[in-house]
């Protein structure tokens, strides 16, 4: 590696467990993706729960937050509560890597089925979930409230 490329290359993304120290950054990123973002205190509470399982992807060890996923896991089932990638990191495969890591950690805890809800019009997220083995098992009419009114949620499941 040349001296120039060492200083100007993008650090390799790092995936690690989410901690209470991440709560404020998680809240800031969450607010960029949802009509009603969760507060730092809400993230602290979720991460403090025994059933709370979260992972983050950063721009290298100790780098800025690029995305996160948070689940509630009570084996043999879990539910993904939220997954967000920052806008600049979308479409690069990082969300799939993060989700794959997260699902592997859930499986190691004894989880055999993962559920999630996704806005019916969120085609990129639905495509990611389908690529990682999720299938639609239900629909909740008018589940999400957004600036343009209420939209449906797809309920999806993935068996391990």
Structure description:
This protein has 160 residues and is α+β, with helices and mostly antiparallel strands. It has 5 helices and 7 strands. It starts with a helix and ends with a strand. Mean pLDDT is 93; it is low at 1-5.
Index terms:
5 helices; alpha+beta; 7-stranded mixed sheet; 160 residues; disordered N terminus
Approximate strand percentage: 35-45%
Number of helices: 5
Distance between termini? 40 Å
- Broad shape: globular
| Mean pLDDT across all amino acids | 93
In order across it, which strands form the biggest sheet? 1-2-3-4-5-7-6
Low-confidence stretches: 1-5
What letter string, H or E per element, gives the SSE order? HEHHEEEHEHEE
Q: State the total count of DSSP E strands.
A: 7
Q: Which bin fits the share of residues in helices?
A: 25-40%
The Cα radius of gyration reads 16 Å
What summary fits the major beta sheet? 7 strands, mixed
Helix/strand-derived class?
A: alpha+beta
- Assembly category: single chain
